[in-house]
Amino acid sequence: METAYQNEKIPNRWLVVAGSLLMQLSLGAIYTWSLFNRPLVEAHGWTPGDTVFTFSITLAFFSVAVIFAGRIQDKIGPKKVAIVGGLLTGLGVALASFATNVYFLYLTYGVIAGIGIGAAYVTPLATCVKWFPEKRGLITGLILAALGVGGMVFKPIILIFITKFGVSQSFLYLGCIYGVLIVAGAMLLAVPPKGYRPPGWTPPVSQAGAAPAGSRRFSTGQAMRTPQFYMLVAWMFFGSAAALMIISVAANIGMTMIGLSLAAAGNAVVTIALFNACGRLGWGWISDRFGRKPSILANFIMLSLAMFYMALIPMTYAGFLVATCVVGFCFGGLAAMLPTLTAEWFGLANVGNNYGAVFIFYGIAALTAPRLSIAIGFESAFLVAGIACVIGAVIAIFARAPGVVKQPDTLGSEGLKPKVTGAS
């Protein structure tokens, strides 16, 4: 097995990482949407609720595309899926420059770009972990962090474009930039040959040998028959809804509640992006050190405090930026911890499908939360989100891992109904 691929020309695996980081930085620009809200309202006379809903549609189609793209890439390879994703992302954003009614904006930036972002997003992480079995935590953190940094990188570029060319023309230029960068990064993606092992690395016995009897191997149907699945769903929905409620209108919050200029309020985009990246790296280490359950609990407590502060206490500029730092940090932490917790609770064999079933509620949160913040007012929306985060914290207090599922020699499509125990 070790020599099966020795005569093949193996690409430098760090080039694969470089391409992945380039892709994720470009994809992370999705979280700068709040910079476009007011310029679009002023340019076209649309309502704030209409423009914010564009971001919701983008994330909803992003979450759906992740599920299908993950399955397709296993069949045709990540490079092809990533290239298509890059082309769709660039095309959707560029076509948004021709939007004269909000529904065309929904179709282009929302549907087309959303599908492209989801298709491109899923490929780098799945590819890089195969190249770095000995550094999965590090590589996963790097890739996830790059997505968070993307908003920080593109914020000044977007503001310059809007100031010099107007919001519509900005979409055209940004679409071209996103498309070129994502496709360029995708060209560096490659899967390792079968049986690949990094030089000098030997897999642990538990990975090299057969799975022990009674190990976790939940199908999606089995997982959905456990209360733990709905705990993950609640954490995904409540946490994402609270964070996206801020991220989607961060600049608007600063301008409306504090009276900041677009440039000053736009600094919230930078703080969210930076701490989103830190959260994706930091919470992984925190949860490894102190455990998943205490980390999830701490995450939701911090998120709830940030939401209650923004809802109940008159904000200063400094307080606004600190609150957005907390929101970004906690949002990044959920992105890092929930896939890991899904794998630990339900096993690695079906983690893609199982996490996909949980991740769909990210899309549902995206469809509901941003528009809710506009419809009922920022303070009321933040109060609702704070209460939801308290519920998420309470769920964490009582959370326990499900019991294992014993697999028969031949497991049918239904499998066995898992026996849920109080295992932790």
UniProtKB/TrEMBL annotation:
Instruction: Show the Pfam families listed in the entry.
Output: MFS_1, Sugar_tr
Question: In terms of one coarse class, where is the protein primarily found?
Answer: membrane
Listed transmembrane segments: 12-31, 51-69, 81-100, 106-126, 138-165, 171-191, 229-251, 257-275, 296-314, 320-343, 355-374, 380-399
Keyword Transmembrane helix on this protein? yes
Named from the GO MF annotations, one term is: transmembrane transporter activity
Q: Where is the Major facilitator superfamily (MFS) profile domain?
A: 12-404
- InterPro entries from the UniProt entry: MFS, MFS_dom, MFS_sugar_transport-like, MFS_trans_sf, Proton-linked_MCT
Could you confirm whether the keyword Lipoprotein appears in this record? Answer: no
Q: Which GO terms describe its cellular component?
A: membrane
Question: Which UniProt keywords are present, listed alphabetically?
Answer: Membrane, Transmembrane, Transmembrane helix
Q: Where in the cell is it found?
A: Membrane
Gene3D superfamilies found in the cross-reference section: MFS general substrate transporter like domains
Put simply, this protein is called OFA family oxalate/formate antiporter-like MFS transporter
Instruction: State the species of origin.
Output: Desulfobotulus alkaliphilus
